[in-house]
Amino acid sequence: MDGNHSSNSSLGEVAGFDLIEPWYAGNTTLIGGLSDKPEDMYTHYLGIDLHKRSSTWVLVDANRSVIHKQTVAVTPHNVSAGINALPVPVSGVKATLEPVCGWRWVQQQLIASGVTTITANPTKVRLIAASKHKTDTNDARMLAELLASGYLPEAYRVSDAGLQLRSLARERYYLVSLRTSLKNRLKGIVTAYGLNEILEDCLTLRGRQYITTHGHRELLDLHELIAEVTRYIKRTEETMAPLVDQHSLTPILRTVPTVGPISTATLVAEIDDITRFPSAKQLTNYAGLVPGQRSSGERIRHGRITKVGSKYLRHTMVECAMRLRQQHDPRLYAWYERVKSVSSPMKARVALARKLLSIIWYISTHHTPYTPRNHELG
Known about the structure:
Layout: E1 17-19, H1 22-25, E2 44-50, E3 54-61, E4 66-73, H2 76-84, E5 93-97, H3 103-112, E6 116-119, H4 122-128, H5 136-149, E7 155-157, H6 160-193, H7 205-213, H8 217-245, H9 250-253, H10 261-271, H11 280-286, E8 291-296, E9 299-305, H12 311-323, H13 330-342, H14 345-365
């Protein structure tokens, strides 16, 4: 997994949560977020607009009338004071906040204080409640009102154990992207200097010896940076290994052809709990591997894949698809060749990635190892 990937983050890529679609959000258990209380036990709803240093809290009643609002500094002491300042018993309060900044510890502190707290899906919230009058108070009130009315789209909260592995896997992804960028820069400088004698092996030991002998300080510095990042990547992989071994999905994933140790780690980290996906379609949708659709009347148009969800899972599955050869699974490879013959190699690769992920969902939910006939179920 040494491609030249972008390291920019966006909503849905924060390690501690996943955006989940509303058609199965109600079937998803939020780890540590929800209680066993029936909905009619809640009398008040708290919306929290969270920022790095401050937050705005708006409390509404069942009729969605504002009864309390306050600005709370984002520190453990002030969050505790904000909870104590609520004018109603916390046992009847249900709260929500978006997964931004230090949301995870804030949510955990609310839960520990007796406030049932769920995580809002920020992308869906903005689609539902877009407003031209955007203020912190309006945002907090909007969250509270959506929660009170039962229309709040939820986000999946990754387990504490899963969060550690996910953070490591994404850190490795970033480091590999950084190393690739450094390698490309080194090659670019070699080309610019016209050092054709080491153009093909400027990253090898021979190339480093040549650079050292001829005193190219800039190139030598880049070689040292690449070596340091590589050492960091290896340390990250060593830390990840025992966490991957402990996960229940690992033995099944290791039976899938082209899914190696790093791909297994990424799949385990991004999926976390396979039971939160009721179908293979929803897992492939989470990976952004399903085609977009624009329909009007009787006309149905399918476009490019949505790329919504986990880019880490999507990139990993595409790389696994690229490694598939006939000896791994003759029938699946023949299927890929048929798709390629009527479309293009890239589209066929994406289709194969989607099919492989569907197979992974099936064998994981049925606790059965991969066999060459599993592709018929994908």
